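Comment thread on ticket #2218

A.B. wrote:
> Attaching the input chain for the structure job we discussed in standup.
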Amino acid sequence: DFGFIQAQFGTRYNANVGLSLQQLLFDGQVFVGLQARRAAIDFQTRGAEFTEATIKQNVYKIYYQLVASRTQVGLLDANIDRIQKLSNDYKSLYKNGFAEKIDLDKVEVQLTNLQTEKLKVNNAIEMGYLGLKTLMGMPIRDTLILTEELTYEKINDFTAIADGFQYTDRKDFQYLSLARDLNAYNVKRYKLTYLPTLALGANYGKIAQRNQFNFLGKGDWFTVSSIGLNMSVPLFTGFARDARVKKAEIDLKQTDDQIADLKRQIDNSIEQAAMKYRTAVATLTIQKKNMELAERVFNQTKKKYEVGTGSNTEIYAADVDLKAAQTNYLNALYDAIVARVDFLFATGKL
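C.D. wrote:
> Ran it. Output below, let me know if you need it in another format.
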C-alpha cells in the first residue's frame, strides 16, 4: 500500500482555434417559409393597394364635385349674361316709357343675386381645392389645375365600364385570396413538422497544449477535423403539433368562408351600384332635357315680351323655372358622378 500519490494528467494550458460550418439540408418548415415569402410580400402590397383604392374613391368624388362646380359657374355666367341683356332691354324700355322703374329694379336684384351666388360658388371651389390637396397629401401652396372636362357622354358610358368584370379586379378580393394562400402554407408548414430534419456539419481546428503560456512561440499545433450528418427525428412532442395543424386547417376553412361571403357582398354591391348608376343617368338625362326646355321657354317668353304680347310676370316665372331646372340638373349631375365612381369602385376599375 503506497498510500496517495499526487499525479498530473494533461498540461496546464490548452488552446483551441477552429471553424465550424452548418448547412441545413432539409427542413420542411424552412422550405415552406421560402415558398410563402413572395405571398407574404404580395399580401402586404395588396393591403396597401386596397387602402389606396379607398382613398382614391374619395379623391375622385371631391375632384368631380369640383368639376361639377365649374359647370355650375358656367351656368351662372350664362344666367348673368341673360339677365344682363334683359336689364339692358328694360333700361331701353324704361327710357321710352314702356316699362316701370320697379321692373328694372327687380332685374337688377336678380343680377345682384346671381353675382353673389357665383361668388359663393367660386369660394366653395377654392375650399374644395384645399380639401382635395389635403386628401392627396399635396402642399397647400402648390397649384392644382383641373384638366378634365365633365361631359354627359362620359357619365353615360355605363356599358363600357360594366363589361368583363372579374372578382380578381377587386383589391379586397386579391387581399383575401393572398391571406388564404398564406393560411394554406401554414397548414403545409405544420404538417411537415412530422418529418425529420437533416443537416450537414463540418469542423476544422488546431489545438495546442503547454505547461507554459507560450502559444505564440514555438511548439506543436495539432489538427482536428470532422464531417458528419445530423438527423433529428421528432418522436413525440405532446399533442401541441397536432393542435397547431388542426387550428391552421380551421383558419384556412374560415378564409374560404370569408372569400365566399366576399363574393356575395361584391355581387350585391355591384347590383346596387349598377341600379343607382342607371337611375342617376336616367335622372340626369331627364333633367338635362328639362333644363334645355326651360331655357327655350325663357327665351320665347322674353321674345313675347319684347314684341308686346307677354308680361314681365311671365318672364319672372320663366326665370324661376329655369333656375330650378338648372339646380335640379346640377344635383342630378353630381349624383350621377358619385354613382359612377361607386360603380367603378364596386367593379374594381377605379
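A.B. wrote:
> Thanks. Noting for the ticket: The chain has a mean pLDDT of 83.
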